[in-house]
Amino acid sequence: MYFIDDTEASLIIDDFTKQQSIQITKVAGNKLNLFVDTFEFNERNFFVENLKKLGFQFVYDEGIFYLRIKGVVNKKDKIHFLFENGDVIVKVIPKTFTFHRTEYAEAVELNLEEIKRFATTFLKKWKITKSMLNTFSIGGFIDNKYYGQYPTSEEGQYLLLLTIRQLIKQVAYHNPNLNYQQLLLS
Question: Per residue in 159-185, pLDDT tens?
Fold first, then answer.
């Protein structure tokens, strides 16, 4: 069992370039995986080992918020996020950003309204449209007692909300002249 609010974000400084970014450094007690995992919905083979995993991590770098996506995505793929209230965010994967981490992941820039949506509304599901194959896959959080990190979809959704909120708190702390705290208040 893990504590769902045991998530940390930290200021990371590149020794060579002195570039600063704020990143998630611990997700709900799991120091090995810094991404919140979701799965592809596959009704034919509903076994964890057959589900493709897609992980999300939020980052703040050079005054911009990003969503890093680790999994079965490539440049020029389109990803749709459907939230519980019916709102949809659509992003095209532009290029790869490393953000001082060794994990390979694609990243999309998020504006303040999109950050606010991720911080205040449950993610219902996502859809990735492959640019080269013109196919798509749909996924999100699943209820599966055999996958230990979060056995219910609500726990995964709360974890995603809390990671972005923790990042916003750290950004507001390290940038007191910018009013990022308003993202969580309204």
Answer: 899 899 999 988 988 888 777 666 665
